[in-house]
Amino acid sequence: MKKLLLLPVMLLLCFAAEAQDKKQDQAKKYNYPQKSMRALRVEQAPKIDGELNEPVWQQAEIATQFIKNRPNPGPLEKHPTEVRILYDDAAIYVGAIMHDVSQDSIFRELGRRDDLGNTDFFGIFLDPYLDQINGFGFLITPEGVQLDARYSSNGEDWSWNAVWESSTKLNETSWVAELKIPYSAIRFSSQPEQVWGINFMRNRQSTREAFFWNYVDPAKDGFANQWGKLEGLSNIEAPLRLSFTPYISTYMERYPVQHEGGSTTHKYDYNLSGGMDLKYGISDAFTLDMTLIPDFSQVQSDNRVLNLTAFEQQFSENRPFFLEGTELFNKGDFFYSRRIGGRPINSGLVYDDAYEGYDIVSNPSETKMINGTKVSGRTKSGLGIGVFNAVVGEQYAELRDKEGNSLKVKTQPLTNYNIAVFDQSLKNNSFVTLVNTNVMRQGSSYDANLTGLLFRVANKGNKYAIDGKAALSQQFHPDETERGYMYRLGLSKVSGNFQFGASHVLRSDKYNPNDLGILFRNNSSEQEVYFSYNIYDPFWKLLNLYTTIGAVHERRFRPDEFQNFVIFGNVNGTFKNFLSAGLNMNLEPVRTNDFFEPRMQGRVYAYPVNYNVSGWASSDYRKRLALDVSTWYRTFKENNRRTFGYSLSPRFRVNNQLSFNYSFESSNRADDIGFVDIVRHEDEEGNELRDADVVFGRREVNSVYNSLSGSYIFNNRMSLRLRAWHNWSKVIYNDFYLLEKSGALEPYAYTYGPDDSPNVNYNSFNLDMVYSWWFAPGSEISIVWKNAFEENRNIVDPYYLDNFSHTLSSPQSSTFSIKVLYYLDYLTLKRKLANS
């Protein structure tokens, strides 16, 4: 009944918001129609040299009168931008002139590929199927740094990379960009006459202004649905898209080995390997991507921290194969790619009683991927189809008994991971999607399957939307099948100054997508409502302002018990001096129930009333020295429990080639309460005498994070970067408590041996140095040196400098690798062979 009462409230809000937006629309100064332009077919391709001096450029139609998107949306540009489009049977050619006051007004910091710094840039966006959801973006800076991205209902995907040509030239009062985008880099239909969605963007960094050719209203939901049209394309055909990227790499590792008595020696491991990535255009719309014997030794190291929670730590994906072109597979958040090649499923098996008396010689924390395949594309009717498959090989741990006999224990069977996605684009930035994930393991281990459905339906004006998703998870064990489900339904107003939304989410107690996805909490029923009011035009001393307030109510699904209630709010804005700042608050005004921290089914911890407030500020990045700061404070109605932390992140740009970023963060949790141990009581025969005791502790938790990164960019194809990260965390327990069945805590006499102290002293350290040279389109030489250290002890060193010194002087794992990738395009290779 309470849920049904939300419906008339939401309808009333819809009518009120519609009336308010009509008043705002009438008061708006700017009402721009959709623009269109024609591309000019040419017989001879222009030379990509940054000079638009071929006569054919002067014959092309000019796109100009760009419209400001930020900081004050609506006005026309003062310094004209002129863009022309040519095409032939092989590619689209873009010529752009960005007029300015002088060279000093054109910011041009160098960066790595796909990395924007303090610089101007020009971009073109293409929607070849005109579905107003999916598209491609190609951006270039005055120094010739390339950036490219895919656009979908999931947002921007900057990990996508294409092979295209570009050149720029700096003049006295302008800069010129010339681009060649081959048809092999994009997807389009086979119709003889085509109309594409198109837009152009210019960023003028000296004034931090962004302009679009076709107006992009920040108050309107969506991006590709606010582009113009490109006409005049006729009789173009998708070429044979076939490319190979073979690689060869050499790898050396130096790692410490501990011996009895505490001595340490180092061992060396060498490896020379090769493999290949392949791309093949199955049709004009679909592409096959395959990696054979992939090498991930050069990916950025994970930032490992001390994890005291009941949940696993989630890591970012840094492997190129799992980043590029995966927007279809990430729909619905059912895919967590770190599962592939992650920790073996049975890595904890070596700690079973069956192996008592054995020493663990090695127990790998990662599995090795054998190959991976992606097939994806979108038909002219807007149906996107994607199939992803990866195979992971067997993994073994090595044990050794006191006599020196070795034993291998299989911790990971041969495993196949598969994802299939069908995504139908609909009108008004809407879609419906079907997702299936499947994990099949060889042998007696269980298999898993998940099927999910997603949809979003918006009205014609794209002001209101209904969205939802549902999923069924299944785990097929040898003796049973475990099934769970979830669903979500939401209604929201997504455009205009005033926006709001309400949603209901249910996850059953058996719902488990974690074989190929990630979910921290199931067995819950959650309702959320929020209201936001955003101001996009400058007023007072502000350029813009974004505000939100809302609440979340959560109950346990089975058994039906109250779990949590949160009131949240935030306000963020940018001042006219380009200082950005924000304030956030989070209130839990009633005692809530934590069913996860006890780490035992059926037990609950009565989480106290608490209030949290945090703030942040970020200075103008145009300055050589910029600073980001943040702070947070949380107080509890329990003892003297509180949390306080702050972070400082200065960044310094020495010149357009050399820059440094430093980050420091300190977090202090006083009188923190958390899980310690489960004490079981058994008789001499191993029979449990009574319920186990769940032990909690009152503790001081202090953490310090330091990160330093620097980069030297030689030119738009060559860079050197260094990144160092150190985390120190200490946990000191003061008192121990018995968690009663009511959720309350009572003093408890918890005893432990000298080697079993629950106190923690944790250090982790990473050092990554990467030299990269893109010596030809799509081809790269990279040299990487990595250092890593991780230690978890129960003897606490109280001072940070002592821990940092100990970390640097301790035996560390070091790796040095060289990798050469070479891009081979079949058509280019064929032409060269024919001309030789």
What would your notes on this structure say?
The chain has 836 residues and is mainly beta. It has a domain at 33-234: Immunoglobulin-like. It is built from 5 helices and 45 strands. The chain is globular and about 95 Å long. The model is unreliable at 1-17 and 23-27 (pLDDT under 50). Residues 1-19 form the signal peptide. Residues 48-229 form the Carbohydrate-binding domain. Pfam families: CBM9_1, DUF5916. Keywords: Signal. Residues 239-832 form the DUF5916 domain.
Mean pLDDT: 90
Specify the biggest β-sheet.
24 strands, antiparallel, barrel
Instruction: Find the count of extended strands (DSSP E, 2+ residues).
Output: 45
- What is the beta-strand fraction? over 45%
Summing up helix and strand content along with how strands pair, one would put the structural category as mainly beta
Supply the number of helical segments.
5
**What coarse outline follows from CA principal-axis ratios?**
globular
* CATH architecture group name of the domain at 33-234: Sandwich
Identify low-pLDDT runs: 1-17, 23-27
Helix content: under 10%
Give the class-level CATH name of the domain at 33-234: Mainly Beta
Computed over alpha carbons, the radius of gyration is 29 Å
Question: Which fold name corresponds to the CATH topology of the domain at 33-234?
Answer: Immunoglobulin-like
Cα-to-Cα separation, first versus last residue: 79 Å
GO molecular function: carbohydrate binding; hydrolase activity, hydrolyzing O-glycosyl compounds
Signal peptide: 1-19
Domain Carbohydrate-binding: 48-229
Keywords: Signal
